[in-house]
Amino acid sequence: MSNLQFITHSIIERLDIPVLKNVPIEIFYIAVMFLAATIVVGLFLAPLAGFSTYVERRVAGRMQARIGCNRVGPEGLLQFIVDGIKLILKEDTIPQGADRPLFKLAPYLVILGAFLSFVCVPFGKYLVVANLNVGLLYLIAVSSLVVVGILLAGWASNNKWSLLGAMRSAAQIVSYEIPLALALMVPVLLSGSLSLQDLNMAQSGGMRNWILFKAPPAAFIAFFVYFISALAEVNRTPFDLPEAESELVSGYNTEYSGMRWGLFYLAEYANMFLVGAIATTAFLGGWQPSKSNVLFATGALFFTLLLAIKGLSFFTKLVGEMVRGKSIFDLLSNIRPIKFSKWMFLAIAFISLAGGALLQMFANYWLVTLLMFIAKVYFFVFVIIWIRWTLPRYRVDQMMDLCWKKLVPIGFGCVLWTSVMMLLGGGNG
Amino acid sequence: MEINMGPQHPSTHGVLRFRTFTDGEVIRKAIPEVGYLHRSIEKIGEMVDYNGFMPYTDRVDYVAAMTANHGYARAVEMLLDVEVPKRAHYLRVIADELCRIASHLISVGTFPMDIGAVTPFVHALREREKVNTLIEALCGARLTYNYVRIGGVAFDMPQDYPKQVNLFLDSFEKLMHEFDDLISYNKIFINRLSKLCPISKEDAIAYGLVGPNLRASGLNWDLRKNLPYAVYPELEFELPLGRGEKGVLGDSYDRYIVRIREMRESSKILKQCFKQIPEGPMMGKVPKNIKPKPGEAYAAVEAARGELGYFVVSDGSDKAYRVKIRTGSFAAMSMIEKLSRGLMIADLVAVIASLDVVAPEIDR
Amino acid sequence: MANSFAQWFVDIVEGVTTTSKGMLITLKHLFREPTTIEYPDVNVESQLPERYRGILQVDMDICISCRLCETYCPIACIKIEDTKGEKTTVMSKITGKPTPKVKYPTLFDIDIAKCMYCGLCIEPCPTGAIHHTRRFEGTVSNVSELTYSYIRPSDLVLAKEQSEKAKSKKLEVGA
Q: What is the pTM (predicted TM-score) of this model?
């Protein structure tokens, strides 16, 4: 009995409502699938992508010598929730000559591309939804759904600017799939399998076993080729021509409003997370704990404690003021969290180091691998944000030039080098 | 297909409209349409008296308003034949150069934003806020100054003004080095701009371009050196010319780098001014009700965008008969149609930004 | 051929170096203090200079209703009405000497929505009654509230008194 049937039957037995026994079982299967999908998207994908938007706004602000988003909630943490609610409540406009069925379908295709890719990414030691043995192939195939979605969005908007953006995007994504696949050939060759969980297992045993350092310098260069191609796949600067703000007023998603636009926005940040996830799995050791465990864990604990203490002080003040009868709307915008002193920082650093050392002892525990993975992926998300706010945009023909004349030859070179090294070495690396 | 880059667009500098006829991404023709910001300032010049027109000249180019004030004052002083004291001239030059820095900061900041990098815009505007604060200490307003009066200037500078400005200039030069590292020599930026729409010397003269656009094509013409006014003959500075270092002479990258270098020259001028400024009165001898003899006068200053000229005709009453304003952006706009043939849409945006057009100057 | 091959390498190397220089600058900024002034939480008005040209304020006690500000305003946003009365003196803030006051204002409206804060009305005022404050927040919910009326009830009473005194004096003299 498959998982779905097991879950459905156990739910029906628990509920024990007589009228339900007469309804055909297929409807329940569909209902349970929808419920599962909603839970995954609502409780997992949306907060992950939403938190990335908050990180982007704060980091972008600090890089530009300004504060960033800090009004709603303590240090602005509730901003993405409030944004989500606002988008749901917005009016849903569809332009007059637009092709209505295609217009409505496009955001779903784009988010499907992101959604389906999360299925085979391993988040921790036993934490993978479906350990496909053609994982990488499946990932590359499914992320092409995004092209169809963007083309539909551009065409169905009945807007020449959107059409231009969609055309550019189709050319860009389709072209950059080739260096992407070539760069991902290198880890496949070195680990011998397309499955992502196997890629993780092949990098066990510390940082020197990361695929990044094998077959030098092919894997190192292949990592950068992968990173640049993946940036182009997810339409991030310097490759964000399809949604070039200064030329096309937001390109293919100009005519979208409300939650339809929200889905495009979420898909972009979910894709960013995915880029980071595949980069760590394929090149940087995935969820494998390593000696650098202590460093990552310390850093993560440090920031979490900072945030927690600020949040705690905020809530204590909030409760105190509410007891005195003030309205919650005034409070949410008026209360400023506490400032930190040197001693506070040192105390938090010490506690984080102790916590990191403790985690090192439990290195193989599944929770620790999950934290390792998320820390590495968020480092990549930070690098992607950093690149976005530093570099200007490529023009269409220059972007194609970069892909076909520079990345594809380098990608081929990496694959060739790796194969030669493997032949000479008689095995892996 | 005809695409309308309409008056509301994130990157046309102000409200400008371009009707572009394209073949996919390549433009066949781009026809500019102006007039969306027309406020009939020249007509108002005939209805308000000479002193009262001064705040309106601020609005001719609100990005660098001091130079607009200065030009009008010079034209009316020519009609009245008034002697302006030396200290007032120095203060006018100080205000002019501060405004030149502010205006070039906006141009140099919005240019990378149109190309895609948003961070340099924020840095440039942060520096412009500091310049605004300095000018606020001088005359009381941050955008529309109304500082120059016919016959002199309105206020004297505060006591510690030289110290404030020198502090700003020291930190400004350091930040300009960082700005250069961030964007001016970035490979992607250079690739976008080099060899883009080079304007030859003959074309520049034929279309009437002035200011940094002209100097980027290699022509050594600046009103401050060739037809000097105020105290510019006593100040030492160089004119940065375009050299075609990253492409062709007169391309968009030249127009960008000429502006960055002009800001450095302006800070040199400012430091010299503060060393040489004499004591003296603020205003010359000007009657309270200005009624010049009938006649006409043309006076021009080198504003941030080139020659800003005022042609004032008086008929003996206390209001002007005609005020005509000649701006550098209007000529630059006329050149866009010729330059835009064969470009891609992304390039059209870059060309408009490189010519540094601002809508208030075009439409007045 | 060799030239373009070398150019290919040079392109890549230049791209990498300039990009990393730019990214280093952005990273440096990440660790600096932000320069934001968090406006509503911080009192900005006290940081403005003395000569800041904010919203106008008229000191009706020393206004002698000479109408010079009304004449010199380039945009005609000041409206004054007055009555003639007995001669008194007020202390001018500019010269410090007493100035004669013959006319008493009964209506002094400035439409601050039209006013362009140019300062041309401040210069001709002989007593310094009209001056700029450092206020810049003039938000209201109705545009008609933006026509500030500077006359106080005591001014109206004073004007009425003075005009009656002058009329009675005129009747005495004229008769």
A: 0.86
